[in-house]
Design a protein that fits this description.
By secondary structure, this protein is mainly alpha-helical. The protein has one domain (about 5-95, about 105-175): Orthogonal Bundle (Arp2/3 complex 21 kDa subunit ARPC3), CATH 1.10.1760. Helix content is about 75%, strand content about 5%. The protein contains 8 helices and 2 strands; from the N terminus they run H-E-E-H-H-H-H-H-H-H. The chain has helices at about 5-30, 40-55, 60-70, 80-95, 105-130, 135-140, 145-160, 165-185, and strands spanning about 30-35, 40. The protein has a two-stranded antiparallel ribbon. A hairpin with a 4-residue loop joins strand 1 and strand 2 (about 40). Helix 1 packs antiparallel against helix 2 (about 40-55) and helix 5 (about 105-130) packs antiparallel against helix 7. The longest helix has 27 residues, at about 5-30.
Length: about 190
Amino acid sequence: MSSKDKNRNNLKKIAYAGVLAALIFVGTELHIPTAIGHINLGDLMILVTSYIMGPFAFVPAAIGSTLADLLAGYPQYAVATFLIKGVMGLIAGLLLKRNAQGKVSLGRKLSASFIAELIMIAGYFAFESLPFMYGVEAALGSVIPNGIQASAAIVGAVPLMYVKLFDKYQLSQHSEVNKNKQKTVIS
């Protein structure tokens, strides 16, 4: 791949990340308030972003979610959200690796989504359990709402991972890998 093609791919990746961070932000802002925080659609968008971008989903997941927390009046969550949501995107992106045919099995989609959501539930529980936050007893109160949010995200995101439009970016990379392999074999 030429330097020009690499630059073009990097620019596309950055542009996609920006658009997806904005969609994660909007999904997070579409929320139902609870006593501690809120239930939102941001996780659904993080899972779809992980499917589209792979491990690079860390960037839009962390940025979009953190901006949403800051604008919603939860600045005390900014650092935790950046790390938790970023790691969710990273891990889901790693687990959503495509096979030789450029596909991801339903089992892999479900398990990647489930693991990413466990990271979210455990991450916020650990953060909210800290003495300078709410403590363990109060943090337990957010486990069920976070579990509901996680379930909604999985139920919504897995079917969206079958939208062919989302395959375009990853499959083009997959095709380029195959072209490079063919060039190596022919040479």
